[in-house]
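Before the break, one more example. Copy the sequence into your notebook; we will annotate it together after we see the structure.
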Amino acid sequence: MQLRNMQQALMAFPLNGSLTSVTEIVMCGPLGAALRAARKQAGVSLRAAAEGSGISYSTLSRIENGHPVSSLDAAIAVARNIGLDEREVLRLAGELAPPGAAVLAEPGLRRALPGGRFSPRAMAALRRVHLRELASEFSAGLGGGSPVDVRLAAKQLGLALAQAGRLESGFDSRGKTYRIPATAHDDGMAQRLWSAHGIAHRLIAEDSGTAPQCLPQQRALPDEREAVYVASCVLVPPALLAAELRKGPLSPALGSPAAFNAALERVASRFRVPAVWAAARLAEDRTGELSW
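Here is what the structure looks like once it is written out:
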């Protein structure tokens, strides 16, 4: 998928611990080439391009020839001197998909990157952007049906869904079959959610090139929380949620309890998800104001 480069960059580091320099993620060859092309097109010398950036013109020359950039802030300063879009610098430096670069360019998140370094908070935010885009990209191939057909979604991933005994839930040894916990067998909604959970694990695993694994009894694990989030985005795709919210007479911020309840009921019914999932998706999307 087009997001694999971002995934590979982010998966190389933990979401906690010390700050990690962006130069430890990529060698910035594409960024250096872009800086050189933009500088020459603007007719700006190396010395003028480096002015006020915190790096020397000789260092900039090395960056243009593929040397790692020591600071994302320095690269952005150079880009401003030569008229290159800041978002393009961020995209090339982190090998991000455009949505990830757009989020990284937001002032609030930029403050989480002192000196052009990825803080744990920034890494977690980018990881969430990646997961959201991964789910959206996958959902786009499901035909926009409402609600999402989980059997069709599983088939698209080559994943079989099966009922399990009480101690057999999760993936089989080959990762080709996802066994839905026995507690969900008699509840259609629960089966639907567990199916989406297995699909999410398989989708994340395929994207990262790992074997899918699900530990249903350990829901506090980061991998399990990620799967829940991806499952919610698969069942309630951001684009379809935004379209649904444009139908109703809602205030931009869902200001009144009545408006929120109306939206909650409509989303839960429209996408066949529990009210708590609908509430979480509404809260994140801010009634479709975000332009993902």
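The beta strands are 20-21, 117-118, 160-163, 170-171, 177-180. The first helix runs from residue 4 to 11. Try to locate both features in your own notes.
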